[in-house]
Amino acid sequence: MKKRQDLLEEVIELCSVVMEEVLSLYRQPETWQVEQKTDGSPVTKADLLANDLLVRGLKKISPEMPLISEELPSPDISSRRKFQKMWMIDPIDGTYGFVNKTGDFTINIALIEENTPVLGVVGVPVTGEVYFASSGEGAYVRHRGHTRSLGAMVFSGDEPALHFVCSPKQKDSDQMARYFGKFTNPKIQYRGGTIKFLMVARGDVHIYPNNRSINEWDTAAGQIIVEEAGGLVIQANNHQRLKYNKPDLKNPPFIVYGDIKNMD
């Protein structure tokens, strides 16, 4: 098995290649071939191309490693329980952002060990940025050959005018309105997909609260990047870290904090 740092560099390189291919398709809407999955969510030619490139690339990097992808049937939990390590990928997280041309879509790759993300790479095709982290090594962003470290904002939960980011799907939620009512003069913006994790990791916002159940591959890479930037990703109901490879591959509602010093 390769060292984690060697794996990380190879995955960053793979992500960069996939980003270029996806961006090329993004600029050609007539090629997208948008269809609907059984759950009603969109899938495009770009999702399938990214999936194929990632699966083939990761199999070259680590032939022995099992893989879970949004765009492939997942192994049964009886098989997955035996996985000590596995890749978890979302070839394009934020397909709505792709189709609606908002730019809020990413390439997500995570390495899961013992139900915990220990390596994550997130590529943002429209900016050319690649965000990455591995356990104990910090979080970084690479752009046009330059790499800089990421640091979440340091704050206390009782400060006024905290900055929040949410999904557009949360905009009219009564539950979220009650949540924001606990804060003094909260500042709220709405963005799609893993972009919200990246905003916390780089210190643009303090908190990303999510009151919906979403898939594990939507959060795994973003989680390790936030954590290595000094933040927290915890379940909303019990403040426990999100875990992975659950039977339904779903996460409960959660909250992504920057470097919070006081949750009261």
Structure description:
The structure is a single chain. The longest helix is centred in the first third of the chain and has 23 residues, at 4-26. This protein starts with a helix and ends with a strand. The protein has helices at 4-26, 45-61, 77-80, 95-99, 174-180, 195-201, 220-228, and strands at 35-36, 42-43, 67-69, 85-93, 106-113, 116-124, 129-134, 139-143, 146-149, 154-155, 163-166, 187-190, 207-210, 214-215, 232-235, 250-251, 254-257, 259-260. The strands form six sheets. The chain has a seven-stranded mixed β-sheet, with helices on both faces. It has a three-stranded antiparallel β-sheet with strand order 13-17-15, with helices on one face. The chain has two domains: 4-149, Fructose-1,6-Bisphosphatase, subunit A, domain 1 (Fructose-1,6-Bisphosphatase, Chain A, domain 1); 154-260, D-Maltodextrin-Binding Protein, domain 2. Helix content is 27%, strand content 29%. It has 264 residues and is an alpha+beta fold.
Relevant terms:
264 residues, 27% helix, 7 helices, 18 strands, 2 domains, 3-stranded antiparallel β-sheet, 7-stranded mixed β-sheet, alpha+beta, Fructose-1,6-Bisphosphatase, Chain A, domain 1
* Low-pLDDT ranges: none
Structural class: alpha+beta
Helices and strands, in order, run as: HEEHEHEHEEEEEEEHEHEEHEEEE
CATH superfamily of the largest domain: Fructose-1,6-Bisphosphatase, subunit A, domain 1
CATH class term of the largest domain: Alpha Beta
How much helicity do the residues have? 25-40%
What is the alpha-carbon Rg in Å? 18 Å
The overall number of domains is: 2
